[in-house]
Amino acid sequence: MPSRWRASAIPPPWRAGWDGSAHKGICGRLWSLIGAGSIGQAIARRVSAGRHVLIADLRPDAAEQTAQTLREAGFTVTAVQVDIASCASVEGLRRGQRRWVR
Predict the structure, then answer these.
(1) Rounded CA gap, 7 and 29, in Å?
(2) pLDDT tens, N- to C-terminus, the chain (102 residues)
(3) Rounded distance, CA 51 to CA 44, Å?
């Protein structure tokens, strides 16, 4: 297996030299969650207080239903469709994150 696919080839965030600069500006204000099921809802409720929650799911109806449930609980939520099997879809989600935090 090529070294680029080994887990050790990806430096963990706690390794010296990593400062999180790629996330400066939105870090702490946006919580992106892929998966709109009950586990996703539970995670969002647990860690998203005071943040904008971005619910991404392959099924837009499921994402919107979860978003509505969280809105009723007092969260600020945006629902989007993403196909994690598509690099272009995931990259679009990553690029669009700044748009949802204003």
Answers:
(1) 28
(2) 444 444 444 444 444 444 443 444 455 678 888 888 888 888 888 888 888 888 999 999 999 999 999 999 999 999 999 998 998 888 888 887 777 665
(3) 10
Please name the residue that has the structure tokens 């879809």.
89
- 56 close to 34: Cβ distance less than 8 angstroms: yes
The length of the chain in residues reads: 102
Is pTM, for the whole model, over 0.70?
Answer: no
Beta-carbon contacts of residue 17 (< 8 Å; ≥ 6 apart): 11
Token digits for 92? Answer: 């679009």
Pick 27-100's CATH classification: 3.40.630.30, 3.40.50.360, 3.40.50.720, 3.40.50.970. 3.40.50.720
